[in-house]
Write a structure and sequence with these properties.
alpha+beta, BirA Bifunctional Protein, domain 2, 5-stranded antiparallel beta sheet, two-stranded antiparallel ribbon, 10 helices, 60% helix, coiled coil, 2-keto-4-pentenoate hydratase
Length: 383
């Protein structure tokens, strides 16, 4: 497996058809024996962000005990035990626990994946995100996130389920002219699926793509082994492009910092020269012009030399990505079927090209900032 896996679900205090409730979820996460029969050798989880599972349980139960909702005639009443009050997200990495424990390189990969996932979760759920834990007593390396909407007096967890929110919005808006109940329900289901795809796309863009993971696996799209291997190569190349862009950004910041320091020293020297030159009547302006011109020219020349190499590489990467995308589109046009594979592969190539182009823009912007010049205009001739 080399594709992303992220799953969300909300739970109530009442057991569902599969026997799952908030208590069961907390018991399973903390590895209570009654809820861990599926694990051969249960081990306590590791909290990698926020508070531990038992603290989340305490927080959730206290909030549920005082949560109120509007009842008949506007009177407040306690929320129903069937209301969803806990939201969870499970994310899994392609590496197994055994692989990670036996390979420092794979450990570094999953650590990077965890950091990106936590950052994404924080952007998705804000203060409602209470905890992220890791389990290593099962085959696959995976983490669990717990979201409790304590800021909401009604403690409604389904507001964090994009599919449910989208479906309810369509149903609340009602039927369109000439639309019957069956058509309305079909449209609401389509909205549900679209919202869930957007959620998965968000995870792919923020986490899976920088980690070299594909959006979907081969079975879902009926890919051949060669097609699947080709897509994995594309994903790995895209990860390297993202890493390169981050490296270039870091270099750009260092260039800017060093250049500003040098420029400050030059301005100080120039100020001293101007003081001396102003004493000489008639040639003060000429001296200032010569001194400033020489110093500015020297700094610009040095910085452009340092940026030239990386900028050329970035432009070559962008050009290579563009040609690869064109070849892929031409190849896919000759294949019948695989409509879903075509859509996702072309999107992945476009993302690769976008990253490479972004790298070029970032380098150019960093160079302009270092030289205190205006931002370059695409397509404009070089100065």
């Amino acid at each position: 497996m080399a594709y992303q896996f992220a799953h969300l679900e909300s739970y109530s205090r009442r057991r569902d058809s599969r026997g799952r409730s908030t208590d069961y979820i907390f018991d399973e996460a903390s590895r209570k024996p009654i809820a861990s029969v599926h694990v051969h050798n249960p081990e306590p989880p590791t909290t990698i962000w926020g508070v531990d599972v038992e603290e989340v349980r305490t927080m959730h139960d206290a909030a549920a005990a005082v949560a109120m909702t509007a009842g008949a005639r506007g009177r407040l009443r306690k929320i129903a035990v069937s209301q969803k009050t806990l939201h969870t997200v499970v994310a899994s990495h392609p590496h197994t626990v055994a692989e990670v424990c036996g390979d420092p390189a794979k450990l570094a990969e999953v650590n990077h994946w965890e950091r990106l996932t936590i950052d994404w979760l924080q952007r998705q759920y804000g203060p409602a995100l209470k905890s992220v834990i890791r389990h290593t007593d099962e085959k696959q390396w995976h983490i669990h996130a717990f979201i409790v909407p304590t800021a909401d007096p009604e403690l409604k967890a389904t507001v964090y389920h994009p599919g449910i929110v989208a479906k309810r919005a369509v149903m609340a808006a009602g039927r369109r002219p000439g639309e019957d109940g069956k058509a309305l329900n079909k449209r609401s289901n389509a909205a549900y699926k679209a919202a869930m795809r957007e959620w998965q796309d968000s995870y792919h863009e923020a986490v899976a793509m920088p980690c070299g993971l594909t959006r979907l696996g081969p079975a879902r799209r009926r890919l051949t082994r060669d097609e699947w291997k080709s897509e994995q190569v594309q994903a790995a190349a895209l990860r390297r492009a993202v890493e390169r862009a981050a490296s270039v950004e870091k270099m750009g910041r260092e260039y800017v910092k060093r250049t500003k320091t040098e420029a400050a020293a030059v301005r100080e020297d120039a100020a001293k020269v101007r003081v001396t030159a102003d004493r000489l009547k008639g040639i003060g302006g000429a001296v200032r012009s010569v001194v400033d011109g020489i110093q500015a020219s020297r700094i610009r020349s040095e910085i452009r030399k340092e940026f030239a190499r990386d900028l050329a590489k970035a432009e070559a990467t962008a050009d290579q990505a563009r040609r690869a995308a064109e070849r892929e589109r031409a190849l896919r046009r000759n294949l019948e079927g695989h409509a879903s594979a075509l859509r996702y592969t072309v999107r992945q190539q476009s993302q690769s090209l976008s990253v490479a182009r972004h790298e070029v823009r970032r380098l150019s912007s960093a160079l302009a900032a270092a030289l205190d010049e205006r931002q370059p205009t695409p397509g404009a001739p070089a100065p």
